[in-house]
């Protein structure tokens, strides 16, 4: 297909997954609005329909809780093709939602959409950005209060699903401590849509649902959850995205915030930047997350170790170490960057976050490399992502060893990544 035909196909996927101002990740497998998917999708929409880009973020904010949290799923309309649905979460928001969150790409997306609106001369852009800026600021306050109560400068996930990298080897040790017992009957639907060999294992699912049971029993109160959590990881990917989004909000605050907002955002930015910088491990050439229950570094190699580049300015030694390390991960791969490298014992090229390449992760890694002056490697990763999509279609993810498209097809965020990264070629 020509680039133009591919762009039309990407638009068609977004149109097909539109459920009325919000976009489902893909039909059936993920039939609701997902938090970070929607933020990437909004940036995709901003390449051709800025009004629709704003709608995506506005509809996500309909799910925002009074305490500021933006949940990982907003169940705008019922569907019986996904488990766990609203009854399992048992939350009490006006619009049914899950009870956990996902990476706050929202602030990055808001700046992106706002700048697209300025370029296109949209009339109501100011008011729309301003309202969303307030929502984003409330959610960042929630992150620091609820998920960094001890002031580490790192925010924690209490459930692997919050990371967005559900079954990453990074969680193996921490998740192994979580019991497999559940008070909820597990009725997986995902393995009816795609092959079980690509999805998390049943045992992982039991632990995922055990965690939901624990937090539901805390009435979703952040303080009680923090005390009870059998899984608590200060995650560098999450912290980096929050820090980067904070920088983007700081930029917007010049026009939309008060003096106090600007000071508060600058403090947040410093706290998160300092916290992240302490997670650099020279012997690994990457950043590592911290298991708050065992107190140990999580050394398993995963893509998360490179995401801090979106938020930090590395020194020369760090920059050459990171670029050499990413080069090593790309070595011998048909498509990079693998979510787990081929030299790791945990590598499974077809199983979800244990090897496959994800277009939106490449988008973040390339952004971080570019911010740190590694333009050539950034372009190489962007081009190989675009080529992978042109060869295999708008799949959920790709086998790094062959480039084969896997998981769900007609995926919204893959279409968005194509539009944004393709536009940079
Ligand atoms: C999976 C992914 C997560 C994504 C969701 C919807 O759960 O791990 O990152 O948001 O699917 O696409």
Architecture overview:
The protein is mainly alpha-helical. It has a domain of 113 residues. The chain is built from 17 helices and ten strands. The strands form four sheets. Strands 3-4-7-8 form a four-stranded antiparallel sheet. A two-stranded antiparallel sheet has the order 1-2. The chain has a two-stranded antiparallel sheet with strand order 5-6. Helix 2 runs parallel beside helix 17 and helix 12 runs antiparallel to helix 13. The model has no long low-confidence stretch (mean pLDDT 96). Alpha-D-glucopyranose binds next to helix 2. The site of alpha-D-glucopyranose has 7 residues, from helix 2.
How far apart are the termini? 16 Å
- Spatial ordering of strands, largest sheet: 3-4-7-8
> What share of the residues lie within helices?
40-55%
- Average pLDDT across residues? 96
How many strands, which pairing sense, and closed or not: the largest β-sheet?
4 strands, antiparallel
The number of helices is 17
Identify every distinct bound molecule in the structure, by name, code or SMILES: alpha-D-glucopyranose
Structural class: mainly alpha
Task: Report the uncertain regions.
Answer: none
Shape: globular
Strand count = 10
Round the Cα radius of gyration to an integer and report it.
20 Å
What oligomerization state is this entry in?
Answer: single chain
Order of helices and strands: HEHHEHHHEHHHHHEHHEEEEHHHEEH
Portion of residues in beta strands equals under 5%
Set out the fold topology.
Blueprint: H1 3-16, E1 33-34, H2 35-45, H3 50-61, E2 73-74, H4 86-89, H5 106-120, H6 125-147, E3 156-157, H7 160-163, H8 172-176, H9 190-193, H10 202-217, H11 222-228, E4 233-234, H12 236-256, H13 259-277, E5 280-281, E6 286-287, E7 289-291, E8 297-298, H14 316-330, H15 359-371, H16 375-392, E9 397-398, E10 405-406, H17 412-422
Antiparallel strand pairs: 1-2, 3-4, 4-7, 5-6, 7-8, 9-10
Helix pairs in contact: 1-17, 2-3, 2-5, 2-17, 3-5, 3-6, 5-6, 5-12, 6-12, 12-13, 15-16, 16-17
Bound molecules: alpha-D-glucopyranose.
